[in-house]
Amino acid sequence: MTRIVGITLVRDEDLYVEQAVRNALEACDEVIVLEHRSIDRTPEILERLAGEQPAVRVHRIGDPRESHEFVAGYAGEDVWIAGFDGDQLFDPVGLRSVRERILEGELDRFWSVTGRGFNCVEVDPAAGTARGYHAPPSRGTPKLYNFAAIDSWDGPTRERLHGGTIRFRSGYGSDRRDDELQQLSWEETPLRWLHLCFVRRSSRRPETTRLNPAEVARRREPRERLRHVAASLLRRTAAQGKVEAYSRGPLVSVDARSFFAPVPQV
Fold first, then answer.
1. What is the pTM (predicted TM-score) of this model?
2. Closest by CA position to 34, among listed 2, 15, 60, 56
3. What values do phi and psi take at 225, rounded to 5?
4. Residue 249 backbone zone (phi > 0: left; psi -120 to 50: alpha; other: beta)
5. Disulfide: which of 6, 59, 86, 257 matches 28 by Cβ 3.0-4.6 Å?
């Protein structure tokens, strides 16, 4: 039977990580959460959530490159992998309809499926509103990958589902992408997510725009340190580049009520 497995790499996301995982559970048979050296309440929240939800598996890792190992073994199996971060909230209602299409085999001919993101500068969960930039034209990252289409995905990776070498099965290739759901409007597409990239996500960290765990790890590498120094001399930091990539197009407001279903309070 076809299964859908979610995987997320998180660090200091205690304000929204529970909502992100619970939303993903609407479509995923299992969600693998990889916690990377958080200093806020993220580990505590994840431990409680895993105790309540048998489908949630939490692991602590010391290096983001380890994260791909948790899904590499699914290559060749009848499994779809949904990648997301702790600051990316799927629309759970739409995600259920995408799950139905996957289980019915409608998307079997594709290697990957993508939808539409919305990069938020403001969110009001109580009012169910968000303000930000559509992706596209801004950068948008979450995708669904059909691991039945590949024999392996190994080699050096900087994090789960990024880098490495993919060996496709006959009839598949990197061009076998389904962008249909991305071509639909924000209101019409069932595969959509809020990306809280410009919103504060941690009770212990005041900044709103910051690097993800894999980007932090790369900055420790000698080559990346030199690149960072060069960029600083040109007055262009990694954070500035991220702002530019995630804020293209007009600044607009959207209805976000479906993304903020109540989570149990403790």
1. 0.88
2. 60
3. -65, -40
4. left
5. 6
- The reported pLDDT for the residue numbered 65 is 93
User: In Å, how far are 161, 237, 252 from 211, measured between CA atoms?
Assistant: 17, 11, 24
Q: Tell me what pLDDT residue 34 has.
A: 98
CA angle 42, 81, 12 (to 5 degrees): 15
The half-sphere exposure of 165 on its side-chain side, counting CA atoms within 13 A, is 4
* Average pLDDT across the chain, whole number: 91
**Domains of the chain by residue range:** 3-259
Contact between residue 123 and residue 196 where contact means Cβ atoms under 8 Å apart: yes
**CATH topology for 3-259?**
Spore Coat Polysaccharide Biosynthesis Protein SpsA; Chain A (3.90.550)
How far, in Å, CA of 64 to CA of 179, rounded? 28
Q: Specify the pLDDT at position 263.
A: 59
What does the alpha-carbon distance between residue 151 and residue 168 come to, in Å, rounded to a whole number? 6
DSSP annotation string for 120-157: EEEEETTTTEEEEEEETTS----EEEEGGGEEEEEEEE
Top pLDDT among 212 and 87 is at: 87
Cα 165 from Cα 153, distance rounded (Å): 5
Please check the confidence at residue 28 and state whether its pLDDT lies above 50: yes
